[in-house]
Amino acid sequence: MSDCLFCKIRDGLIPARVVYRDDTCLAFEDINPQAPTHLLFIPLKHIATVNDITSEDREAVGHLFTAAAKVAQQRGHADSGYRVVMNTQRDAGQTVFHIHLHMLAGRPLLWPPG
Ligand code: 5GP
Ligand code: ZN
Question: Is the pTM of this model over 0.90?
């Protein structure tokens, strides 16, 4: 039994507001949103960090971006803009060790993020 929070969300063991799913990825609302739209896109396969992505995962990981772009388009963020970001390890603030592409939108986003 996986102890991973996002595997549990994937398996329906922990509730989440799912906004998109297909055969390789799942997207749901972040529980602590940092922008009017703050979604997390995860591969269905458990991958702990960006460091653990292998060449076998290329399609699934690349697909996180096409899924995020599709949802951004549907929600009207494609032209105004949005941010996709994946935090890796401690200094980047990674707290859940199942890779997830944050998608933030709906307000002007500062850069650098801090
Ligand atoms: P990280 O800091 O690892 O890049 O991002 C983890 C994200 O997961 C955070 O933005 C946090 O708010 C979100 N998160 C943590 N626990 C839960 C949860 O139980 N449900 C949902 N939907 N998001 C969560
Ligand atoms: Zn996991």
Answer: yes
